[in-house]
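Students often ask why inverse folding is considered easier than folding. One informal answer: many sequences map to the same fold, so there is more than one right answer. In these notes we will look at a single instance of the problem. The structure comes first.
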């Protein structure tokens, strides 16, 4: 049974999707109280209705259910692991909309495939017929020697056609495997077999793939060769005509090729950025090509960007960073990536698309898209969707369980084991090992909710929604007070995980067996990102981040304070430097007016990335503090994507980059990137100065003015400046060549 669409994954019985409770592909016992609710609309009355429930118990055992609403009865299902039908008497039902609830009374895991409501006299006429799909194509030679036709038994009237360069030696091969990516890695050495079968996954559902294997293509030194191919689909006559008539006409193919080349993103930076070109192009290619299909979500199949093609599934926080990477390459794809994780306002099933760590990067992605393309239609479309997402994450919507504790601090353990994406982060590991999920809160979730409430406030101001603005301001005040009251640990200088008592009230900071605050790591510094620290807290935490004895290393920010007693050198996150959280603290440094430290974070990351990619040609997940080398998946386009953001901010002329306390109302950059004018609204504390990065043509010196008055500027390298702006103002920034 499922508590909510956002909190439980669906099980998949043969041939479809069922409501169930599954975690990491292991069935869990159905907890008493879990429920599923349906609204059933009946145009006509029933005199003697019966509910035919189709279900199975995948692990056997006994499941006990109670029916409420339309039906009032209890039921036990036992032993049967196959899909079977169980009748439930309902009786007289008038026309109209009726609510039906199925409540778990505890017991074995249950897959609910669905139900049919009919007259009792007609129940024998109800039958379920399983369609056995034949996914293996019939391969047939096309009208020319270098062509192939693929026909499918249950795909009536439609076929596919393939055409390739006749001058290249080739072999047509077939793969019978569940997942081609994994299977091909195991069979890449097989250059002989025409049919390859996955004998390592005999129990997995078999899929069929056809492959035109082009034999090695020789190239002389310093030479170039372009090969063309054609894929078409249609009825048999159409495919026949296209394969025979086109025959890869050079004039037509060259035109298609040239048009595609014109759409390729230009990664060329300014003079100082040329040193990073190779490593940036590798990252760009990885982000753009890590696409998988099909991925199933909300009743349909979608094309999907993935951190690596090893994982053909949804990842909420990874995909936020994929979107940020795509924004540097293709803004439309970045918008599509954002939209894939948001749902329509009022969606009855999910407030947003969640899988993995519930870190709300989608809000930051929207802000980056907006500040690059301030088009009102974007805010009007995305605001209600992001508002719904925020309401669930902050515990104010639907079945959300994030805000059950009296302290007001947030936790997301009910939805995923990982609070901030950092799998082996020490206090998080301790919480799970000791069963403290119900009573312990991290810092990162509440801190992010504060920051995304501020982003929503900026959106609401732009749309004139004054009531919503006040609501966000109140949330920020409440969450900030909770962190300051319960999570701040003055002795260590970090915010800590908070352990609550049985009454839900905050009791104490979670501590290591040594007595040290268990949260001496980036989670403990996240109120900086939220922008709610006192001057003293801010000074201490920034000092920790910059300290070579604590967080700062030759390759960037260590996830865990290296002076902590639980720091280790062989962890996945503990002992490693990752790009995503560095991106958040880089943005934060701009908001706090520490542009030099922001520059240091970005420069270090770009240098580390460059050295590793040039040495290995790989795009890794993370970097080991002890060695400085890359590790993890080698073709990773997710959490490593911030290197594209840093390169774009500091080395691509014609750019304005800000933290999270700047809302761009309009921006205009001269075509030759020698001047920039932007209307901005700044947030933050009155009297403070934040910084933005301006990158223009490196051949000139520049001056900057805010509402006509000279700004404080810091030259980073030719054409690139940190520009200081007053917080909590609205005005125009003009940057022009001297």
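Output (designed amino acids):
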């Amino acid at each position: 049974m499922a508590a909510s669409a956002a909190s439980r994954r669906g099980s998949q019985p043969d041939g479809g999707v069922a409501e169930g409770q599954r975690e990491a592909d292991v069935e869990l016992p159905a907890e008493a109280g879990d429920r599923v609710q349906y609204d059933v609309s009946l145009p006509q009355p029933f005199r003697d209705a019966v509910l035919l429930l189709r279900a199975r118990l995948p692990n056997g055992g006994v499941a006990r259910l109670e029916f409420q609403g339309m039906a009032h009865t209890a039921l036990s299902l036992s032993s049967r692991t196959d899909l079977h039908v169980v009748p439930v008497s309902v009786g007289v039902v008038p026309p109209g909309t009726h609510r039906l609830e199925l409540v778990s009374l505890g017991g074995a895991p249950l897959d609910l495939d669905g139900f049919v409501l009919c007259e009792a006299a007609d129940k024998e006429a109800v039958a379920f017929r399983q369609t056995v799909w034949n996914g293996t194509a019939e391969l047939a030679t096309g009208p020319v020697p270098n062509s192939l036709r693929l026909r499918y038994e249950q795909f009536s009237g439609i076929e596919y056609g393939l055409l390739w360069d006749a001058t290249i030696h080739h072999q047509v091969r077939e793969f019978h495997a569940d997942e081609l990516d994994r299977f091909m890695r195991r069979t890449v050495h097989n250059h002989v077999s025409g049919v390859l079968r996955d004998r390592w996954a005999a129990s997995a559902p078999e899929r069929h793939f056809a492959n035109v294997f082009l034999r090695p293509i020789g190239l002389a030194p310093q030479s170039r060769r372009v090969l063309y191919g054609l894929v078409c689909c249609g009825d048999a006559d159409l495919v026949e005509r296209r394969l025979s008539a086109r025959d890869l006409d050079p004039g037509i193919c060259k035109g298609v090729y040239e048009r595609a080349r014109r759409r390729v993103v230009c990664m060329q930076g300014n003079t100082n950025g040329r040193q990073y070109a190779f490593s940036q192009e590798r990252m760009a290619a990885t982000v753009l090509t890590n696409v998988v299909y099909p991925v199933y979500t909300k009743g349909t199949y979608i094309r999907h960007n993935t951190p690596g093609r090893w994982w053909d599934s949804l990842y909420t926080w990874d995909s936020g960073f994929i979107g940020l990477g795509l924004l540097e390459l293709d803004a439309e794809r970045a918008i599509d990536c954002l939209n894939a994780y948001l749902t329509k306002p009022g969606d009855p099933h999910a407030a947003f698309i969640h899988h993995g760590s519930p870190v709300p990067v989608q809000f930051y992605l929207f802000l980056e898209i907006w500040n690059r393309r301030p088009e009102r239609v974007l805010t009007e479309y995305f605001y209600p969707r992001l508002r719904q997402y925020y309401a669930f994450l902050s515990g104010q919507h639907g079945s959300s369980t994030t805000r059950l504790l009296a302290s007001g601090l947030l936790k997301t353990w009910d939805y995923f084991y990982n609070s901030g994406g950092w799998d082996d982060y020490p206090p998080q590991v301790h919480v799970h090992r000791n069963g403290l999920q119900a009573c312990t809160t991290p810092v990162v979730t509440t801190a992010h909710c504060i920051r995304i409430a501020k982003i929503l406030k900026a959106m609401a101001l732009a749309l004139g929604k004054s009531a919503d603005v006040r609501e966000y301001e109140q949330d920020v005040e409440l969450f900030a007070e909770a962190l300051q009251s319960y999570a701040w640990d003055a002795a260590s200088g970090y915010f800590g995980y908070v352990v609550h008592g049985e009454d839900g009230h905050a009791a104490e900071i979670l501590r290591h067996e040594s007595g040290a605050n268990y949260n001496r790591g980036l989670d403990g510094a996240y109120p900086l990102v939220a922008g709610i620290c006192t001057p003293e807290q801010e000074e201490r935490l920034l000092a920790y981040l910059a300290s070579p004895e604590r967080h700062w290393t030759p390759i960037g920010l260590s996830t865990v304070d290296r002076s902590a007693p639980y720091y280790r050198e062989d962890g996945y996150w503990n002992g490693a430097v990752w790009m995503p959280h560095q991106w958040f603290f880089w943005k934060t440094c701009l908001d706090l007016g520490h542009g030099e430290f922001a520059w240091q974070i970005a420069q270090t990351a770009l240098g580390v990335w460059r050295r590793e990619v040039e040495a290995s040609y790989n795009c890794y997940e993370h970097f080991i503090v002890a060695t400085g080398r890359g590790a993890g998946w080698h073709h990773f386009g997710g959490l490593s994507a911030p290197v594209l953001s840093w390169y774009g901010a500091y080395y691509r002329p014609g750019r304005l980059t800000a933290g999270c306390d700047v809302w761009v109302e309009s921006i205009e950059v001269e075509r030759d990137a020698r001047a920039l004018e932007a209307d901005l609204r700044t947030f933050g504390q009155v009297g403070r100065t934040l910084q933005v990065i301006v990158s223009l043509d490196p051949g000139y010196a520049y001056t900057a003015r805010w509402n006509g008055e000279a700004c404080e500027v810091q030259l980073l390298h030719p054409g690139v400046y940190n520009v200081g702006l007053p917080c909590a103002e609205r005005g125009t920034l003009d940057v022009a060549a001297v």
